[in-house]
Amino acid sequence: MKLLTCPLNGPRNISEFTYGGEYHPTPDHQLVTPREWAEHVFFHDNAAGVVIEWWCHTASSYWFLAERNTISDQVIRTFPADEIFNQRVEFNQPASSGESN
Amino acid sequence: MSATTVTAALRRSQLYRRHIDLGGHFEQVAESTLVSHYRSIEEERAQVKTLALVDLSALPRIGFKGLGAPDWAAAQGMTLPAQPNRATLQDDGTLIARLSQTELLIASNLSGASTHSAVAVSAVADTTLAERVYSLPRADSHSWLVLCGDLAAETLAKVCGVDLRPHKFANGEVAQTSIAKINGVLIRNDYGDTLAYSIFSDSSSVEFLWDSLLDAMAEFNGAPVGVQALRDC
Lengths: 101, 233
Hints:
The structure holds 2 protein chains of 2 kinds.
Chain A: E1 3-6, E2 10-13, E3 17-22, H1 34-42, E4 50-57, E5 62-69, E6 74-80
Antiparallel strand pairs in A: 1-2, 3-4, 4-5, 5-6
Chain B: E1 11-12, H1 16-21, E2 25-29, E3 32-37, H2 41-50, E4 52-55, E5 61-65, H3 69-75, E6 86-89, E7 95-100, E8 103-107, H4 115-126, E9 134-136, H5 138-141, E10 142-148, H6 152-157, E11 174-179, E12 182-188, E13 196-202, H7 206-217, E14 223-224, H8 227-231
Parallel strand pairs in B: 1-3, 4-14
Antiparallel strand pairs in B: 2-3, 4-10, 5-8, 5-9, 6-7, 7-8, 10-13, 11-12, 12-13
C-alpha cells in the first residue's frame, strides 16, 4: 500500500487520507472582482507537474498541505497548513462598499 | 444485595445489548451503569493478564480544542504532554491526551470520580470558557474500549496498520489511525504492569468494532471482562 506522511501523525497508509483539492493562494477579497473570486473558489488548474494540494488525515481530521508531482505521483513534502495560514483572516465588509455585483 | 440493572442510571454504554447477551453484571458509577464482571472475578483477573476487552464507554470523558485550550487546561491544574500524540496520566488516574498542539482529550479514571474530568465537564456546563477554547463533548460521540493483556499488540496487528508492539510504541504514546477500518484514537495506557490500549472511536459503529476485536482475539483465547478486573491490575 502507498504511504503518505502526515505532518501530525507520521507515515500512514494512503487509505487513511482524503484528497482535498488544489491549494491556491487566497486573493484579497476586498480587491478582487467577483469573476476572480469565483475562479478562486471553483476553478482548478489541473497542472501537470509539481502542485500543492490539500489532504486530510481522516482518522484525526487533520488538514495539511502536500507538494506532489502529478506526473510521477511523487510526494515531495507534506507540511502543516499554518506554514501558510499563520494569521487570522477577517471577512468584514469594506467600509465603503454597499452595492452588490 | 440486589443486582443493578443496565437501566438503573441515566447513562449506559452503546454496547449494553452485547453486555446483556454476554451475561454481564452491572454496577453503577455516578450517573452511569457499566459492566462490573461477566464471569468470576478470579477468572477475569487472569484473563486481563493474557487478552481481554473492556468497555469503559459509560465513564466520563471530554475534549477541548482551540489556541487557548492548552493554557486553559494548565490553569485548571492539568499536566499536559509537551508534544502532540502523547498522553499523560494525572495524579488521580485521569488520562489526558494531546491530539494536536491545540486539542486535548480528557478521560476519567476507573472509579468515574476523576477530579480533572469533573472540573472539565463542569467548566463547559457552568461557565463561559476562556477565549479560543472550544469544548468537544466526547462522551456521546465516542465509545471507549480497552484492549489489554500480553497478547493485545498481536491482536491489534491483525486490524491496524501502525506498529503498536510494546517496544516500538511506548506507554503514553497516541496513534490516531484506522482500527478494523474504524477511525479512532488509540492510546497506550498500561494498568499497573498490564499492557493496555484505550481505543476511542465513533460510538455509532462501536458494535462493529467490538465484534471485530472479539473476532481478532478469538485465536488467542481473548474474552471480554468487566471494569473490576482492570481496577485490580
